[in-house]
Amino acid sequence: MEKYDLAHATVREMLTEMKDISEIMVDLAYASIMFDSEEIAEEVKNLEEDMEELSKNIRIKAMLSARTHKDANKLSSLLEVAAASRRISNAAGDIVKLIECEVDKRPFLTFILREAEEKIKRLNLTEGSDMVGRRIGDLGVESETGMRIIAIKRGKRWIYDPEEETKLKAGDTLIVRGTDDGYEVLRAYANGEETWPVYPEEEAEED
Amino acid sequence: MDDLDEMLLELKDTSELMIDLAYSSLLYNNKEIAEEVVLMEEMLDELANDIQRQAIERVVQDRDEGKAFTVIKLAAAVEEISDAAMQIAMVTIRDDEPHPVIRLSIKDADTIITLAEVKQGSDLIGRSLGKMRLASQSGMWIVAVKRGRKYLYGPDKNAVLELGDVVISRGPPDAEKYFQDLCAGEERLEEP
C-alpha cells in the first residue's frame, strides 16, 4: 500500500486510495477468517486507521477547494463516495472482530468462504515459473487470469495490496482472489507448468 | 452446506457484486447499472432479515448461540457494505454529471465490469460456457448472470446462457466491446 504525503495529496489521489483500501480491506477481512490469521486481522485494523486519516483529510481539502455553489454541490457528491468507502472499511473492521469470537464456534465461516463464487486462495511461486523477477503490472496478472493478488507473503514479511511495480520472487506465497477457473490458470503459470503468454505489441515495447 | 450457509454465501457474493457495480456506475455515469444496485439492495435486505430470523430460530432449537451470534454479526456487516454500495449508486442516480475527479479516481483499475443482455441471434445462446471457451475467446469472465429476478453467481463450465439473460462480466477494458457485441448477436464467436 503506497503511503501518500497527506498534506500534499490531491483529492483525486485520496479518493483513489480510499476506494482501493476499502476493497482490499474486505478481501483481507475474509482472508483473516479463512486462514485464521491474526496477522492479517491486524493489518485490517491498521488500514482502518489509515482510512480515518484519509477521510478527514479529503473533507478538509474539498472544503478548501470549493469556490462557488456549483463547486460545493459537486464536491459534496465526491465526499459522499468517500464516506461510502469509509463505511465499507468499517464493515471490514467488524468482520475481522469475528476472529476474536471463540474459535470452536467459528469454523463454519471458513467452510462457507471456501464455497464462495470468488474464492480467496494461496499459491506458491516456484523457481521454474517465468513470473519470477517480473513486475505484477507488466505481467498484467489480473487482466490475464482474472485473479487479483491481495497479499504476498515473502519469508516472514507480508506485502498487502502489492503495487503494479512489485516484483515477484521465487518462494513467494501469493494470496489471490478470483474464480476456480482463474485459479487453475494462474497456478499453472506459478508452478512453471505453463509459460506466461507474450503478446507481439508488448515485445515491441520492451525493445 | 445447509440453508443458512447457502443464504450467507449469497449475501456475501451479492454485496461484493454490488460494490463492483456501484463503482462502475460512477465510472460510466450509467444510471442503469446504478438502478441494478438499488434492486440488489432490496433483495439483500430481505435476505439479511431471513438469515437473522433463521439464526435466532436455530438458537431456540439447537441452543448453538455461538453460531447464531457470528451469523448475525456477519450479516449486519455485509448489510453495511451493501448500504455503502447503495450510497455510491445514489450519487450516480442523482447527479447529472458526477464530479470529474470521481471518474478519474475510479478509472485507475485495470479491469472493468460490464452488463450485457443476451439477444436473439447471439452465438452465446444454448451452449455451455466451457464448450465456447468464452473466457479465453473474449477476455471477459462472467461474474454473474441475471435471469428474471434471480442472480446466478459464478456460473461454471456447464452453465448455459438463455435468451434474455443479463450477463455481468469482468475483464480488460479493450475486451468489453467485442463481448457486448457477442451478447447482442452482432459479432460471431470464432469456432475453436
Structure write-up:
The complex is a heterodimer of chains A (207) and B (192). Chain A is built from eight helices and four strands; from the N terminus they run ααααβααβββαα. By secondary structure, chain A is of the alpha+beta class. Chain A has a four-stranded antiparallel beta sheet with strand order 1-4-2-3, sandwiched between helices. With 192 residues, chain B is α+β, with helices and mostly antiparallel strands. In chain B, 59% of the residues lie in helices and 12% in strands. Chain B has a four-stranded antiparallel beta sheet with strand order 1-4-2-3, with helices on both faces. In chain B, helix 1 (3-27) crosses helix 4 (100-107). The radius of gyration of chain B is 19 Å and the shape is globular. The mean pLDDT of chain B is 87.
Task: List the topology elements.
The complex is a heterodimer of chains A (207) and B (192).
Chain A: H1 11-34, H2 38-65, H3 69-97, H4 107-115, E1 119-124, H5 136-139, H6 141-145, E2 148-154, E3 157-160, E4 173-178, H7 180-190, H8 200-206
Antiparallel strand pairs in A: 1-4, 2-3, 2-4
Helix pairs in contact in A: 1-2, 1-3, 2-3
Chain B: H1 3-27, H2 31-62, H3 65-94, H4 100-107, E1 112-117, H5 129-132, H6 134-138, E2 141-147, E3 150-153, E4 166-171, H7 176-184
Feature tags:
heterodimer; A: 207 residues; alpha+beta; four-stranded antiparallel sheet; 8 helices; B: alpha+beta; 4 strands
Q: Give the ordered list of helices and strands of chain B.
A: HHHHEHHEEEH
Poorly predicted segments of chain A: none
Mean pLDDT of chain B: 87
Proportion in β-strands of chain B: 5-15%
> What structural class is derived from the secondary structure elements of chain A?
alpha+beta
Morphology call of chain B: globular
Shape of chain A: globular
